[in-house]
Give the backbone structure.
Amino acid sequence: MPGPEASRWISAFLEARVAEAGAARNTQLAYGRDLVDFAGWLAARGLTLAEATRAAVEDYLVHCDARGLSRATRARRLSAIRQLYRFAAEEGWRDDNPALRLSGPGKAQGLPRTLTRDEVVRLIDAARTKGRSPADRARNAALLELLYATGLRVSELVGLPLAAVRGDPRMILVRGKGGKERMVPLSAPARAALAAWLGWRDADEAAARREGRPPGRFLWPGSGREGHMTRQHFHLMLKDIAVLAGLSPARVTPHVLRHAFATHLLAGGADLRVIQTLLGHADVTTTEIYTHVLDAHLTALVLTRHPLARKARGG
């Protein structure tokens, strides 16, 4: 376990990130876990954050590789360590950054997994049958319709305030990473599914008032500390819906549906900059990965559907 000095360094660094950059909560938690792990690894070798050398950071990255951590995780850990030492130098705790010139493993460049339009339709249809009560089934259908219609991140979806969808809006305001806001349009099917769910949601609010319970702020209420459905709950529920739809649950995650939203939009002729805005990407290069997904799909179509390709395979 890291000592008091390491805990002070890490806490101060994370607080500064929130104050200066408005870092997303999930990113903060990941960085905190990464730095605690690094500091604990150093402590086990009789070193502190103040004493770590470049060789020690390199050894730690080798250790992470040996543990089987993914490229993306190792790249994030190096980024967290590098930023911590930059902050330490600014605070006068160190006069160097031992991680500054390390290149790290980089991130894997695999294409994001996605689903076909037919598979998404099957998922949404299955969601209408998932649930013990009509209210549960209406909620699940609205969740799937809204996710596919908007491409929201799962944290954005489950944390939507009830006020965001009042009045049958054609667009909703979404607060994304780092507190950045964007407007996202709603499709007609998503609006219809939301209206059906709001009927049940409002009935529950009326019952809460009669029983003296405080009203809920969120569109998808939950019994947890935050007051809304958790990401984990939605993730597991989506796996069950995938099974009902006849799809492998390993292929279906909230992020895969976000990829499907973007890929299907691009295939339909949407401009890449528009998709960037809808997804809330800070840099268009992040969005450009979907052009590669589309290219791969078109290549597969040519190789499997073109009559000359079929003739060549058949000999």
Observations:
- The chain has 14 helices and two strands.
- The CA atoms of residues 221 and 228 lie 4 Å apart.
- The domain at 4-91 is CATH 1.10.150.130 (DNA polymerase; domain 1).
